[in-house]
Amino acid sequence: MNAAADHSTWKQTYTGRAFPMTAFTALDIDLHGDVAEGLARICRFGGAVPGNPYSVAQHCVVGADAALEETRDANVAAYFLLHDAHEFVFGDMTKPAMPTSRPISCCTTRMNSSSAT
Fold first, then answer.
1. Predicted model pTM
2. Any idea which architecture 10-115 has in CATH?
């Protein structure tokens, strides 16, 4: 983590680390230990699905498979696989609620650009 970073706003991750929610770098993101595990435990659509739960991780994997089959482009599939990576910190905020939370919107934009590097 950045030594000069603001550590006052953080969230404990699946691996037990303190993730700095407002001052993070790409090095603070553990794709396997925190992102994958975290997304597997978050339900899509705020949990409002009939039948069995549908996790954000399932959505990402199914979509990445479809993207690869349709485009034959591994980069497109990889992008889809990571497009909801920010949700390991913020959860799956439904579309109607997104505009009401500007701070989360700013942080998700930053996280998406960090995970793309």
1. 0.74
2. Orthogonal Bundle (1.10)
